[in-house]
Amino acid sequence: MSEAPSPAVARARRGGAMPMAELHCHIEGAAHPDLVLAHAARHGIDVSGIIRDGHYVWHDFTSFLAAYDLASSVFRGEADYADLAADHLGRLAAQGAIYAEFFVSPDHASNAGLPPAAYVAGLSRGIERAREESGIEARMIVVGVRHLGPEAVERAARFAAEPRHPLVTGFGLAGDERTGTPADFARAFAIARNAGLGLTAHAGELCGPESVRATLDALKPSRIGHGVRAIEDPELVRRIVAEGIVLEVCPGSNLALGIYPDAAAHPLKQLVATGARVTLNSDDPPFFRTTLADEYAFAAEVGIDAGTRLGFTRQAIEAAFVDEATRRRLLERLGVAAIALGAPPAGG
Ligand SMILES: Nc1ncnc2[nH]cnc12
Ligand SMILES: [Zn+2]
Question: With a threshold of 0.90, does the pTM exceed it?
């Protein structure tokens, strides 16, 4: 009879010991239910409709967004957001992440009564605290919320652009992909592009390949949030590969939201096989009962080898919205971690 593997070996087999990097996670969506319960109690907010037995409850994309909005509303001050960012990044670092970008939504802060500048100041304090505690590096991507309309998204872009906070390095579009058309947000993306921000947009999550194509045409992002449904159109996949568009793939989110019925139906492996630049991400981890380590474990479970999984981390660092000196440092850290694991990273 063989002995049970040690926890470290079991974790390594699951893919959890890998050095990881994440490009796609919404900070409000990363709020652990315990943290939300604590802040809700302080502010006298009833969250019993969205948190039961320590887990978020929702049943479709619309009710997920409603739960997300209510959970967000319990974070009201600069210090609340510092705690949220530090908690999120501390959890990621404990899993093995060396770099993380997260989406920040000035509209959610404003709805909770906090001016966007104080929101970003609080989050950046959390980033600095986490860096001191664990060495994890992080940046913020301001997002406009699509279902709030083009004017709100332009307001978010102007906030991101001027004055530039040093840790805000990107601009993106989140929210309900089923509302409006990408062209509605072209002005917002022009503002962000002119400010030198990196660009990403959610597409090909709830809607099909036509949404990804229209997003690439109208907004010209270097990265697409999700993008998985591009697999339904081989011509579009060829374009994504040829243009080097990076896909921020979030399998746990896709499965939780029912975009795909099960792991076997998820196109992660096919996307990798096309040569597209793929990264792995957790999106809104406690809402979808996932973690970044779980996403890497998912990749292992669907048959993606360790070298390719390390390649996801390298890809994320190469596509990160950071200055070149930081990118070089992160790639060096990845190289050292990969050698310790006994496997040099793909392409490095
Ligand atoms: N999965 C998702 N898609 C679009 N907008 C979001 N905001 C938070 N999570 C999201
Ligand atoms: Zn997302």
Answer: yes
Question: For residue 67, how far is its CA from the centre of ligand 1 (angstroms)?
Answer: 12
Nearest-CA residue for atom 3 of ligand 1 = 175
What residues are in contact with ligand 1 under a 6 Å CB criterion? 26, 29, 68, 174-175, 202, 205, 253, 283-284
β-sheet bridge partners, residue 203:
226
Residue of the nearest CA to atom 1 in ligand 1? Answer: 283
The rounded distance, in Å, linking the Cα atoms of 145 and 148 is: 6
Give tens-digit pLDDT for 68-115.
999 999 999 999 999 999 999 999 999 999 999 999 999 999 999 999
Active site residues: 205
Query: Which numbered atom of ligand 1 lies nearest the CA of 253?
Result: 1
CA quadruple 257, 259, 263, 267: dihedral sign: negative
ipTM: 0.97
Using DSSP's 3-state secondary structure scheme, residue 285 falls into coil
Is-contact 217 194, C-beta < 8 A? no
Domains located in the chain, CATH noted: 18-32+83-341 (3.20.20.140)
174: three-class secondary structure by DSSP: strand
